[in-house]
C-alpha cells in the first residue's frame, strides 16, 4: 500500500496543533482550577490554610506529545510544501541524467507556491521552461510522482519521428557522443539547455512516434532515456495543477539496502 506522506504530514501537523492550542486556551486553565479547588478542600478538611499558588498538575500524555512534536512537524511541513522536497529516483527513464538510487532535491517554489496535498497554486512565481527536469503527479491517477524533462510548452507542436524530436516544425539538434552498447549517447540542445540522452541501439523508432499540440495550461514531458520512458508520448500532457516542482540537485546516491550510500554523484541537474 502506498502511503500518501504529504497527507499524513498535514493531518499530524493540524492534529497536534489543535490539541496544543485547545490545551493552551481551555484545558490547562481547567486543570489549574481543579487543582486549586482540590488544594483548598484539603486545607479545609485538615483545618489548615491553603498556601500560595496550587502546584500545576502534570499534563496529559497526549498534550505533552503534541506540544513536543507540533513545532517539528510544522517546520517540516513548511519546508517540504513551499521550499525543498527530497525524492528518490526509482527507474532508469531519465538515464543518463538521473540514475536509479539518486536522491534529488526539488525546488517547490520555482513554479509558484501551491497548497500541500491539493496542489492548488496560491502564488504565481514562474512557469516551467523547456529543458527543465520537473517532478509532477501522474495525470492518470493524480498521486504517483513522476520525473521527466519539459519538452513542450503550451501552444507548441511536438513531433517525434524516427527517434528525432521536432518542436514547432524545427528539428532539434542531437549530436553523437559515444556508442555504449546497448545504447548510444547523444547530446541534445533544447533552447538554452544542453543535456544527454540515450537511444537504444537496434530498436526501431516506431514506438512513441506521433505529433501532438500542447494545450494551454499543459506540458509535454519526455524521459532522457528515449526508448525506455513512459511519458507524454503514451499517456498525454501534464496539466499545471499536477506540477510538483523543479529538480535541481543530486545530494546522494544509494541504489539498494545491500549497498553503501555514495556522494560521488552530488551536483546540479542539467
UniProtKB/TrEMBL annotation:
It catalyses: Cleavage of hydrophobic, N-terminal signal or leader sequences from secreted and periplasmic proteins. Gene3D superfamilies: Umud Fragment, subunit A. It is a multi-pass membrane protein. The chain crosses the membrane at residues 6-27. Its EC number is 3.4.21.89. It is found in: Membrane. It comes from the Bacteria. Its main location: membrane. GO terms for molecular function: serine-type endopeptidase activity; signal peptidase activity. GO terms for cellular component: membrane. Keywords: Hydrolase, Membrane, Protease, Transmembrane, Transmembrane helix. The keyword Membrane applies. Belongs to the peptidase S26 family. This is Signal peptidase I. It comes from Marinobacter salinus.
Amino acid at each position: 500500500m502506498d502511503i500518501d506522506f504529504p497527507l499524513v504530514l498535514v493531518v499530524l501537523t493540524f492534529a497536534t496543533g489543535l490539541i496544543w492550542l485547545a490545551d493552551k486556551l481551555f484545558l490547562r486553565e481547567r486543570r489549574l482550577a481543579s487543582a486549586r479547588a482540590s488544594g483548598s478542600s484539603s486545607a479545609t478538611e485538615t483545618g489548615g490554610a491553603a498556601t500560595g499558588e496550587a502546584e500545576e498538575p502534570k499534563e496529559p500524555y497526549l498534550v505533552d506529545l503534541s506540544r513536543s512534536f507540533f513545532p517539528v512537524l510544522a517546520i517540516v511541513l513548511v519546508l517540504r510544501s513551499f521550499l525543498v522536497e527530497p525524492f528518490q529516483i526509482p527507474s532508469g527513464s531519465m538515464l543518463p541524467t538521473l540514475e536509479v538510487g539518486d536522491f534529488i532535491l526539488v525546488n517547490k517554489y520555482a513554479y509558484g507556491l501551491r497548497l500541500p496535498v491539493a496542489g492548488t497554486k496560491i502564488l504565481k512565481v514562474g512557469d516551467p521552461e523547456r529543458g527543465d527536469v520537473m517532478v509532477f503527479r501522474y495525470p492518470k491517477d493524480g498521486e504517483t510522482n513522476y520525473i521527466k524533462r519539459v519538452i513542450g510548452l503550451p501552444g507548441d507542436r511536438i513531433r517525434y519521428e524516427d527517434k528525432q524530436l521536432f518542436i514547432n516544425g524545427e528539428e532539434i539538434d542531437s549530436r553523437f557522443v559515444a556508442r555504449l552498447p546497448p545504447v548510444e549517447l547523444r547530446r541534445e540542445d533544447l533552447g538554452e539547455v544542453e543535456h544527454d540522452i540515450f537511444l537504444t541501439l537496434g530498436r526501431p523508432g516506431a514506438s512513441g512516434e506521433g505529433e501532438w499540440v500542447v494545450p494551454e495550461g499543459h506540458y509535454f514531458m519526455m524521459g532522457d532515456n528515449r526508448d525506455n520512458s513512459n511519458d507524454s508520448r503514451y499517456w498525454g500532457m501534464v496539466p499545471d495543477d499536477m506540477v510538483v516542482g523543479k529538480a535541481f540537485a543530486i545530494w546522494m546516491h544509494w541504489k539498494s539496502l545491500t549497498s553503501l550510500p555514495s556522494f560521488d554523484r552530488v551536483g546540479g541537474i542539467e
